[in-house]
Fold these 3 entries.
Entry 1:
Amino acid sequence: MLDIPIKIPKEYYKLLEGFLTEGKAVHEKFSLDFSEVQTIKTSKGKLTFNPPVKVSANLGPISLKTTITTIKAESKGVVINIDNSPVDVEIAANE
């Protein structure tokens, strides 16, 4: 086996480490909790989580909590459908 070290910024490593060891990714005021997800189904570029991923954001005196059931890859980027919200998050390459 060939070992090739890959260096990434410390904050990215902490996100990856937390996700792999605890099922949680926490960054500043935002948290994604995959720890209770039992199944992840993939179909036609879409991930479906059961039960959903827990999402929380602490913005000053406001604490928001919701879930994410699906994440879908599209030609323009990745769309994260936030449950019970009129707002979805789209992630695309910075060009």
Entry 2:
Amino acid sequence: MKKIIFITFLLLSLMCITASATTYPVGGVIHWKGYDWTLKSGYTGPSYNYWNNTGVNCWIDDDNKLHMMIRNNTETGNWECTQLNNQYSWTYGTFTWETESQIDEFDPRTVVGLYTYKDDNHEIDIEYSNWVDEPNKTQYSVQPNTITGNKITYPLNISGNKVTHIMEWKPTYIRFKTLEENGSVISQWNYTNISGIPTDAENLRMNFWLINGLPPNNNSNHELVLTNFTVQEYTNNQTYYISPTGNDSNNGTKPDYPFKTFSYAISQLVSGNTLLVEDGTYPDQITVNKSNITIQAYNGTPTIPIGNSTRCIYGTEVSNVIIDGLNCTGANVTDTCNIYFRFCDNITVKNCRSVDGYDGLRYYVCNDSIIDNNYITNMNQHGIHNFCQNSGHTARNVTISRNNVSNCGHNMIDFHSNCTDSRITGNTVFFTDEWIAAGGVFGNQGMAVHNGMCDRLLVDNNTVRHTFMPFAINNLNDSIIRDNYFEGGLMDGSRDSQINIAGVESDVKVPVFGVFNLTFKNNTLYNINDSILFYVDNTDNFRFQDILFENNTFSNNYANAYQHKEFYLGQGAQAHNVYEGRISNLVFRDNKFNNFTINWMSNTISPDAIKFENTSAISIHTNNGIPFTQNKKTVSLYINSSTTDVWYGDPVTYLIAGFIGTPRTGTAPLNVSYTDLTEGLS
């Protein structure tokens, strides 16, 4: 009997799990068929309706069908409609929707809209409505539809509830189709007025609304179900040319007849086009508002100055764009950026120069994108800045490779907030002697990963040299740092060069943060004062957990080795303590140390929190520098702290097996004894 009850309970549990697969909007955004769709809210057009952007009006069911409602809100008495705007805009393409609703029987006051939109005069519509008293339900139009020939209507009689709707938008025609489930044509129309066909990018949208905001005649809720949506991008391999000596009256299709301005040239591009940029200095900046295009240097290194603008190259909400071989010159003006893409996918910037500015190259919430083989120098702030701060989004799969970045006033390569599944590889980062001699602004970090939720990064084969802090890590999980060369060497009296692994930064808003599951291996650390610095500030809610240092080489040449610390665990200016449970499974394995020194500025930690395995040449100095030797290993302890009552309990036992530290006060020497080092150092 108990077995039957258990099986029944298990089946019911599985049924509950299955039934909970419905997906609702999060923050007014729902993901369907590979795209993010933003839901409209408030009281606005078309036809001044109330719009609901929550799960009561829109959701995705277990079969991945999208539901859109016209619904009476019984609490407010308002009839609320639904509109979804795609994350992307397109210039040309074939857009296909499949619905599973009896659209021909919808109330005459309802409107189903499947359309592209730039503004009220640039819009392509498939709409189903009787418009209160129109006998035909299907309307195809190109706005403004008050122009004769820009609109046509057809009857809508469908045998079932499954219908396919197609809009094929090309440079020379727009073809509209409505099809039965079996492929038979219900209605179709070819629009061929080339002068009326939009040539700029338009946003893809769909809505379900009420004419004049009036309730349905039967006062009943209505539901529109969509089963599929696809986009087939228009491809045209045409190549165009641009030159500072060109003319926008040219057709731009040959080197002898180039365009002159980027604003005009880009307006002529369609998906699949390439714009070849001839050498020289151009009069205007590049605004990328088309997807699936390439802008590439053709002869020499063409220069795009920032001028009076805030960007040399700027693109937003586009995809599949390549920028290749251009030279951008900026100005040291706050929040300017030489090359800037935001909310984009599949962006590649390669073989470019970005010189003299505020930020050299910036990606804001860009996915599946590449920054490769660029030369970036002399920036007030960042060289390369890949970030999502305050966006509510995550950037994934960004590769930053083979770039030469130097002389930046903040971080030269910066991953900032919610950047995951990405790679930083083969870059060279440094300060030049000329920059230093000229009194240039010194950056905080060569490379930095910070401000939370940066996961699954691979940082490999980079060279970072002649910097204050070659690499800073704040709040990084499940990542690998390998085969890099990190060199310090710059100190200004207030900052020492270091690899900084920290649980800091007050703007991180996550319950528990820190550094988790990090592998740091096969790296060379040279001339770095605090080779590995663990640092805690501004919070008590951090962790250092499951961190492996393996086969790294520490090579330093400071005159006063006792002031150099190859491992430092500090608590920061705010005196937040590193205490029991905050550090676990920190492993040093097969590393090569020149002079391993521990500086410990915290309270006790858990036993076995820090482990040494087959690590050679460990030297831990006492206050007076007297070494202790056992089993042909030199082991001593160095304490450098002006605080009183530094040690509580028995912290040294947890660092090196067999050593016992006793409490001290002020600057009195720390008494150290040892027993058997075999367990700790073998």
Entry 3:
Amino acid sequence: MLAGCSAAPAPISSATYYDLVRDSEIFTPTTTQQELDEYAEEVCKVMRVGDVDTSWVYGVKYLTDAGMSGGDSGTFLAQATSYKCPEMVERFPG
């Protein structure tokens, strides 16, 4: 649980997720919403592999291994988990 929270954060809406991803320009403009949903699902699957302290590392590694820069990986990791698995947000450092 995040400090000061009594429950995991509510997921962001699909519209907010799509806007955030499009604004960050990580993916090409032709990437479909279905593809963005699938990428978010994959990130959540990867995040569930590790324990609370290391799962975010698995997420970043998964995305960088797929060719994403480190900065973009962190950005998309936050966007994807906030959308599809907000309970994972508490696993981020800091």
